[in-house]
Write a structure and sequence with these properties.
Number of strands: 12
Strand order of the largest sheet: 3-2-12-9-1-8-6-7
Largest sheet: 8 strands, mixed
Oligomer: single chain
Helix content: 25-40%
Distance between the termini: 22 Å
Radius of gyration: 17 Å
């Protein structure tokens, strides 16, 4: 990352609430052509989330604690705050002397932009302002939220406007709300009475895939970009009696992850 930071724009996309099993099966079935093109080897990496719900996971991720590979470690991190005795800070880790990654990148010359999605980014309350407040520029509108069937398209349009105003390097963070419940409206033919389930979850991911190429094109238009696309946590749809997240269940802790370089003009 010491070779990436400074020479590349940076993109972090959290697909809020996306389950690893649903993401893996949709990719294997050929339902995610844009993500298949971008992900190394056309595969998701299986990782463990640093938190079981959005706020906890993002507080960790935005401090440099990305989802951890689901295999024995230690696993060197891409980004790390200066911390004596850290066993996951290696020679390839980009370190920053700040409490969080956006502040560290700002000190390195990046303009930091947050395009929020779920309620922890809505800036309507002190809690909903905490994570967006880490960025130099942050955006949220009701059209970006969990009840909007076109949330991701609205988020990309906002990102396009924000990036167009910047000449120098950009760190763009997008919290994608489309996977989060309610997501039944992404399943063709479903009604509110159908409710959410893994099928509507997968349909929401297909919706995201149809548009994510535009985000990749935006971030690779001016210079190469280093991208991370991952989930912050999964969610339960009745497994062992659990519904939702903020519980220590396998479907919540296990998340899909991918990191890759978008070459200039590649998309």
């Amino acid at each position: 990352m010491n070779e990436i930071v400074g020479g590349h724009d940076l993109l972090l996309v959290t697909l809020d609430t996306l389950r690893y099993d649903v993401a893996r099966e949709a990719l294997a079935a050929g339902r995610l052509p844009n993500l298949a093109r971008a992900l190394p080897g056309g595969r998701w990496e299986r990782r463990h989330s640093p938190g079981s719900f959005t706020y906890a996971a993002h507080a960790a991720i935005l401090a440099g604690f990305l989802p951890t590979p689901a295999a024995p470690g230690p696993h060197p991190r891409l980004f790390a705050a200066t911390f004596p005795g850290s066993e996951t800070t290696a020679t390839g880790t980009w370190t920053f002397d700040a409490p969080d990654l956006p502040t560290g990148l700002a000190a390195a010359g990046y303009h930091t932009i947050c395009v929020g999605g779920v309620g922890f980014f809505n800036k309507l309350t002190p809690l909903g302002s905490t994570l967006p407040g880490l960025f130099a520029e942050s955006h949220w509108e009701p059209e970006f939220g969990v009840t909007s069937p076109t949330s991701f398209e609205a988020q990309i349009a906002c990102a396009e406007r924000a990036v167009a105003r910047v000449d120098g390097p950009v760190f763009l963070f997008v919290n994608v709300s489309a996977l989060h419940q309610p997501n039944w409206y992404h399943l063709p033919g479903a009604t509110r009475g159908h409710g959410d389930d893994p099928r509507s979850h997968a349909a929401a991911l297909e919706y995201v895939d149809r548009h994510i190429g535009g985000l990749f094109a935006l971030m690779s238009a001016r210079r190469p970009a280093f991208a991370i696309v991952c989930s912050d946590h999964g969610t339960a749809y009745g497994e062992d009696g659990h519904i939702g997240h903020r519980v220590g269940h396998e479907v919540v802790w296990t998340v899909p992850y991918g990191e890759f370089v978008l070459e200039r003009g590649q998309w």
